[in-house]
Fold this protein.
Amino acid sequence: MSRHSPRIHGENATLRRSRGSSILPAFLTVCTLLVIPVTGTAQTPVSTRDSTRDSTRARLDSLARRLEDAESAIQLLRDQLATEASSGVRTRSRLALEFSGRVLMNAYGNTARTNNVDVPVFARPDSGTGPQGGVAMGIRQTTLGLAVTASDVAGGSFLGDVDVDFFGGQLPSSGGRTFPLVRLRTARATLSWSKGSVMIGQEQPLITGLDPVSLAAVGVPGFTAAGNLWLWLPQVRAGVHSSGRLRVGLEGAVLAPTSGDPNGLFDTQFDAAERTSSPYLQGLLRLSWGDSEREGSVTFGVHSGRIANALDVAKTSEAVAATLRIPVGTRLELRGEAYQGAGLRGLGGGGIAQGIGAGGEPVRTRAGWGQLNVQFSPRVLWGVGAGFDDPRDAHIAAGGRVYNRVTETHLHLRPVGPMLLGLEWRQIATEFTVGSRSNQHINLALGFEF
């Protein structure tokens, strides 16, 4: 369920197997009845005209019985198909509906103070003073998804999906994190043709549409504030692409402007980017190859927008970015992204979550992350990765964050059926204009997919 990241479920395979097992016997019966040859015609001795008529009549009667049996088997096959079609889940508009999800409980611990305890992205400057780390558990990184499909819409295929989690904060009560709020992650309506597509909805930035693999960082994707721009934003995008072994595509998007500043609990106001009345614009060149299971890709993108400083003077938000996802053989995959630009907090924590800095200028930064994953078997995956965000020191106000580095390693197991188990270790090292702090994060994930 977020880029990703992207959505594979065993339920479809099970459904296909159950349908095949119910239909196959009837299908084999039809084939057997229709193709068994009527043997013995050339070898039957003809002694008299009467014996010939009797033999012919017997063969015709046998063929008629086979035809009746075949018609009965075909009718049975039709009945089974009709029953399965009527039992499928459909929406009011008669579209096919798929429900999926991943229930995930995380047990985690930290050695120092961070911005957030269950999915930390940088250390706090007051780490080392007062109470430090601890251990806790939560289930708010559980995700649920709905998808509808239609095969013939405007000459193409339609896919609509909604993805939510429970990472929208928590009620101010004694329950705390155990009473999490539902949050909308992505919501997309996509029309696809053989060489193009159009999408409206909420999705990650076009230029950085890739996340690291993780069961510990789902509510906030891994390497946030350390090279990953991920924030799901309302947008409209369109693209065209070629076909063949090596596919070339061009895409463009108009995104909602955002500065990343917090808004009110219910009543909202325009943020620093929205006050400029200028949408964010992004363009992308994509090279891809391989099939959907082992697809490789390299992208190059540009971003342009505006953001207002404290004096309401519009400043430029800009970036160039690249992503790569390269499968190596059948077991290895290398993925990552890199970017540089200014005023990128609103795209998902660029500049270590700092937008406008000293002198009212957008924080200029360079950042990136990379991850290597090894699929030892369908049930065992191991990986290691690192990321960084390095803002320009001159743009950081006193006490601000000037460098953030994250390293991690993870092990994912699928012991039996839909069950999941993940173990991840992460080290966060954050430098400030004065001093530096670090944190060790350990995360055990347990759950299942459906």
About this structure: Residues 16-87 form one domain. The chain has two domains: 16-87, 89-449. DSSP finds three helices and 17 strands in the chain.
